[in-house]
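Translate structure to sequence.
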């Protein structure tokens, strides 16, 4: 049911507690893929209707999804989800591939949100979006809250919002193949994909409300999703032939309003734009490290920002009218 999809409570098998957040969550690990009989090689589902990698089935994932990379971030933000009005506990499961889904009710509303760990990289975002799409009926809204490299001076610790779009920066293997690659660019930059404008506006205004520094705590621009944390983000190494010494400079020259390097947003926005109007998507990321001066946020600051931005992202999802996914 739209926006109020009820997750079926599962029998708790493993109690999880982390020092960061003592939660009332319970989790269950789904069976490993080798122990599950799958059917349909085109889109594998097990006999319970669970997807191959995310491990979810209908009724467990909300139409409104907050995608985070890190399991500890998901655990921290689960504080904003409450049990269901009928007394069913917040739903939590971890798939054999390490994806987690936590579904509960937000505030005093009957609106549900699922927090899904997307792990890292383009293929994992692809698994999450496609397999969530397969088990959710009706329109969906997805917001990613990640961390990123901050590209503009003075943006360490700010929330960087790709309101102007997101490009893919990826390695071009052909350029590295013997003499055949001569003259080819070792890295390619795609054209930008855009977030859903209303969902992105919701996200910006909620961030403005929840961030300690308000508008000063965020910066909008273009995000660069990369296919490697290392070579395609211009981190140099003597161990590999990467030809990336000038990559950051090249990116900044071609995209002067580039604000961030991370590894998933492009796939989310690209798939949403190819979802035939059924998925609205937006994203933001915390500037964890500033590339130009090599500075990192402290772990304490990071948790504070994760909490503030996570609350904003959940409220942006709740406030989004799911009948408006189509542009
Ligand atoms: C790399 O350290 C990871 O952190 C960033 C990148 O996109 C990549 O996934 O995001 P998350 O903190 O959401 O994982």
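Result:
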């Amino acid at each position: 049911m739209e926006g109020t999809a009820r997750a079926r409570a599962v029998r708790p098998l493993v109690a999880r507690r982390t020092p960061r957040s003592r939660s009332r969550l319970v989790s269950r690990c789904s069976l490993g893929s080798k122990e599950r009989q799958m059917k349909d090689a085109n889109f594998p589902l097990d006999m319970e209707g669970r997807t191959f990698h995310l491990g979810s089935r209908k009724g467990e994932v909300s139409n409104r999804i907050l995608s985070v990379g890190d399991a500890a971030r998901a655990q921290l933000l689960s504080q904003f989800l409450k049990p269901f009005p009928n007394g069913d506990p917040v739903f939590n499961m971890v798939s054999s591939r390490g994806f987690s889904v936590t579904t509960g009710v937000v505030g005093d509303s009957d609106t549900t949100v699922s927090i899904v760990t997307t792990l890292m990289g383009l293929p994992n975002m692809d698994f999450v979006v496609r397999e969530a799409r397969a088990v959710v009926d009706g329109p969906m809204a997805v917001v990613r809250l990640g961390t990123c490299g901050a590209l503009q001076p003075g943006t360490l610790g700010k929330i960087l919002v790709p309101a102007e779009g997101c490009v893919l920066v990826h390695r071009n293997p052909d350029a590295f193949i013997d003499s055949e690659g001569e003259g080819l660019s070792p890295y390619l930059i795609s054209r930008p994909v855009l977030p859903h404008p209303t969902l992105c506006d919701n996200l910006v205004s909620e961030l403005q409300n929840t961030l300690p520094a308000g508008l000063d705590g965020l910066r909008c621009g273009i995000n660069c999703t990369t296919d490697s944390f290392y070579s395609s983000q211009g981190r140099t190494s003597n161990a590999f032939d990467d030809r990336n010494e000038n990559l950051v400079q090249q990116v900044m020259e071609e995209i002067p309003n580039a604000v961030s390097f991370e590894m998933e947003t492009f796939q989310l926005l690209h798939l949403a734009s190819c979802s035939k109007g059924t998925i609205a998507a937006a994203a933001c990321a915390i500037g964890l490290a500033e590339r130009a001066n090599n500075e990192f946020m402290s772990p304490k600051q990071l948790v504070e920002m994760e909490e503030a931005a996570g609350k904003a992202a959940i409220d942006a999802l709740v406030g989004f009218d799911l009948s408006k996914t189509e542009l």
